[in-house]
Amino acid sequence: xxxxxxxxxxxxxxxxxxxxxxxxxxxxxxxxxxxxxxxxxxxxxxxxxxxxxxxxxxxxxxxxxxxxxxxxxxxxxxxxxxxxxxxxxxxxxxxxxxxxxxxxxxxxxxxxxxxxxxxxxxxxxxxxxxxxxxxxxxxxxxxxxxxxxxxxxxxxxxxxxxxxxxxxxxxxxxxxxxxxxxxxxxxxxxxxxxxxxxxxxxxxxxxxxxxxxxxxxxxxxxxxxxxxxxxxxxxxxxxxxxxxxxxxxxxxxxxxxxxxxxxxxxxxxxxxxxxxxxxxxxxxxxxxxxxxxxxxxxxxxxxxxxxxxxxxxxxxxxxxxxxxxxxxxxxxxxxxxxxxxxxxxxxxxxxxxxxxxxxxxxxxxxxxxxxxxxxxxxxxxxxxxxxxxxxxxxxxxxxxxxxxxxxxxxxxxxxxxxxxxxxxxxxxxxxxxxxxxxxxxxxxxxxxxxxxxxxxxxxxxxxxxxxxxxxxxxxxxxxxxxxxxxxxxxxxxxxxxxxxxxxxxxxxxxxxxxxxxxxxxxxxxxxxxxxxxxxxxxxxxxxxxxxx
Length: 548
Description:
The protein has 548 residues and is α+β, with helices and mostly antiparallel strands. The chain folds into 2 domains: 1-158, 2-Layer Sandwich (Alpha-Beta Plaits), CATH 3.30.70.20; 159-548, 3-Layer(aba) Sandwich (Aspartate Aminotransferase, domain 2). Helices cover 30% and strands 20% of the residues. It has a 7-stranded mixed beta sheet, sandwiched between helices. The termini are far apart.
């Protein structure tokens, strides 16, 4: 049941939604309108036109109106479940040799594109409304008598199916085993921060929670203050003047959302190829699959000859510092990647979420003096090279998009604060689409995000914590027989499993009460990842257990 009509419609029954619905799935009752849950195709056309704001996506339905889901089910059980899209589907019962048809809808600007697969007639429908696709895909079987029967599989609106070994439930048995160890579990698997959110961030959130702009809809492209903070941060930390290279920014609901939607927002699909490192963050691949594009995994993205001659390459993922390996690309390598991508018309997608977590000489120092720049004391930190640096991008942000997150820098993973910066044209187009699908950071959180970006003292404190924990983990893993080394960047120690199989080592570590991440999640089943985002006490406890 994708959409539900709730209490504000009672005794009002404004029919703007009926006129807008492309598949006639909205029906009139004695006191309210009802959406047939078996006929709705998830296009979302009805919600924005309702003057009483009575229409909700099922997951967004307020608790006090949750019973309206059952009310709709009861209504159609009483009056019968036939009509709307079902009537359109009847028109699509084609001869057994036919495979497709495009049929009219009663809505003047809409038609339904139907694909069939005889016998049994499995249908896939796409509503084409006003020249745009509402890719509300569903599978439905229609019998020879025209009665629709649901098929178990139903895909999400606009998304293709995906497959990935990235499933944290697979770790559950090892956690069960680890929990039985005296002292319990030391979880070094998920890179979720445990340290306090900076005081500056909490204060900004508190102030903004009842500010004048807190009551209205937030700005998709970011408030003026947040945008200023991002531009300031780029100048101070990354050595990049975004305006001078024709770059723009848009905040995102965490970096994972940005990664997962990136290929879709770039309008990539069938026939398009997205390059990514073979060992990498799994959401790169998942996002490409969701868009219907193809994934090309290469050992080293900086080896441009491994992908620049492949037909159909439209985007190239770069992750430096890398999750999970900790590798950091030099500015020279980044420059080569950018130049090669531009030659073939591809976009460089540079995930730089760990930019401030750099531990190697392959880095750039930034120095901030004084409170006027957001620091109470002089702050100096090492950062990884940025794809938008003029030496890398040749003075223009054309075909470059950079991602950054405050999850690790400021322990704000729960706030979901990140942004995309780069090619102004691409960013603008993404902002327009993001506005329509509601991918907007709440206004008070935007204020907190701005405070986090300006608090260089807190970033320095966190940098120091992570470096200390990484050194402790490296030493302990070495004592346990692993070939562990301090990473060049990021927050993880990446090692080869002693057994050669990540799952066997996961079992051995669970016997010590320690949980790591299996390398199979990242494309290397022979490896393990240990996270330094656990507390000092937890890391020290893990070190003691590994050193026994």
